[in-house]
Amino acid sequence: MSRPPLPPFDAAGAARKVRLAEDAWNSRDPARVALAYSADSEWRNRSTFLSGQSAIVDFLTDKWRRERDYRLVKGLWAFSGNRIAVRFAYEWHDAEGRWWRSYGNENWEFCEDGTMRRRIASINDVAIAAADRLLLWPRDGRGDRRPDDHPELEDLGL
After folding, report:
1. What's residue 121's pLDDT?
2. First to last CA, the chain
3. Are 3 and 33 in contact (CB under 8 A)?
4. Helix extents (H) in the chain
5. pTM
6. Arithmetic mean of pLDDT, 74-102
7. pLDDT digits over 32-44, tens only?
């Protein structure tokens, strides 16, 4: 089964791929997110290296157990052929109620069927006060998609 948009990407297809990824990650459903990756997908996430969809599900299950009330905004940075570069920011709180904003960049490489074969992510965390949160939108219980009228990264100064 293919995962459109498919490479080679044009500007509209690359932007759509980024938004679809953001929507999936904001669902905080590890199985849903893993479907976007090839069966043998290779990841580097910070200092963690993993391979395959089941490892992705395990990683994300643990991530969202620790990173509570997670909200993410992704932005297209560049694209060429079957590759896309993305900037992102997400906010979350830990078990003690401390808020964090995590900033990062991802490099993505796709298979012909539109699944991601490689994801390389570099991420930094910054402690923030709850009053400084910027990624605020109502939870809808159906995936918690960022509303289309919510500001993008650039609009938020991120």
Report:
1. 98
2. 35
3. no
4. 11-27, 30-34, 53-66
5. 0.96
6. 98
7. 999 999 999 999 9
DSSP notation for 68-106:
EEEEEEEEEEEEETTEEEEEEEEEEE-TT--EEEEEEEE
Average pLDDT score over residue span 18-37: 97
* Coil, strand or helix at 62: helix
CA distances to 9, 17, 75, 101 from 84, in Å: 8, 9, 11, 23
Could you tell me the strand order of the sheet in which 48-51 lies? 48-51, 37-45, 116-128, 99-110, 83-93, 68-80
pLDDT at 139: 83
Cβ burial of 78 (10 Å; 0-12, 13-18, 19+) is: exposed
The answer to whether 71 and 63 are in contact (CB under 8 A) is no
Total count of residues recorded for the chain:
158
